[in-house]
Amino acid sequence: MQNMSIKFVIIALVSLALLYGCIGDSVPQEKYDSLSASCEKAKNDAASALAGEKGRTDMASARLATCNAEMQSMEQLLSAREQENDELMIDAAVLAKAREKMDWAGQYNLAAAYYLDAFGPGKLPNTARMNKIDVQVALLNDAGLAAVWNGVKNCQGITGCANAKAKVIPYIGNQTQKLALDAAAIVGAKSG
What we know:
By secondary structure, the chain is mainly α.
């Protein structure tokens, strides 16, 4: 405990000596004024630099806001274009289905042309013309058309052959009309 009081006394004496030394030395007024002016200049320079940085920051913020607005506008435009593209893809799929129907109608029309080339007015069927009709009927894979065509190929007698031949073009016309109506219904369903 005595050791502690000696230490306390030493610390108190050292503190007084330091305090007296600081108080005893006074700073001349010129040094104080110079230091004060230097501090004021540094403060003004720092404020000016801060104002410049704030101006650049404000300008960068304005450019960023403009850029963000342009980007948002571009994203909206892109979204609208993607929606248009999706709609066009749907339209393209619908039109592809309708075109497929019309392509089949074209194949039926080709079968009618081959048939008329062989059996039309003033025409005589031959093996080459009959083969073209056979190939076209097989391509169409239509059981009704195949039955009508086989009726012509296997007909007997003038009346029987005339009746068989009279069924081919109306059958093809009905199939073509049905395909055209199907195509129109596909397109109409999309429009409605």
